[in-house]
Specification:
The chain has about 130 residues and is mostly helical. It has seven helices and two strands; from the N terminus they run H-H-H-E-E-H-H-H-H. The protein is globular. Strands 1-2 form a two-stranded antiparallel ribbon. A hairpin with a 2-residue loop joins strand 1 and strand 2. It has a domain of about 90 residues.
């Protein structure tokens, strides 16, 4: 049995369709920091971190710089904030956050102190 495939060049309309599909799929995965315009609790948490944890460093990254300077085009920045939002909202545990961020940013002498400071500033999670 022979299977035929059709090779058709991707036109402008098809490319737009692909981009719209990608945008829609990303919207379904977005954390509270991106999907909830009223993420005031998370925003307040992030805003206070540079004050309560002035020397945040994980691996070779200066997390304090990320917090005070805002958006960066670095992919690690985006992944870090997505995971921080998931931690804040209770979707991942502290251990899951630590393991994921360590694998992303690497080991460093300041990691444990940085995690301890970020964790102590988290709001209490409701009992499951």
């Amino acid at each position: 049995m022979t299977t035929r495939t059709c090779a058709r060049p991707v036109g402008r309309l098809s490319a737009v369709g692909v981009l719209l599909a990608m945008a829609a799929s990303l919207g379904g995965c977005a954390s509270e920091s991106w999907s909830n315009i009223k993420a005031t609790g998370f925003n307040a948490y992030v805003d206070q971190l540079p004050k309560s944890c002035p020397n945040l460093r994980i691996g070779n990254e200066d997390i304090g710089r990320w917090l005070t300077r805002g958006a960066s085009s670095e992919s690690n920045y985006l992944i870090f904030f997505d995971n921080l939002s998931r931690l804040y909202s209770g979707k991942i545990s502290r251990d899951e956050f630590r393991t994921g961020i360590d694998s992303l940013l690497g080991a460093g002498p300041h990691n444990e102190a940085s995690y301890a400071c970020m964790f102590k500033s988290l709001p209490a999670q409701p009992a499951a």
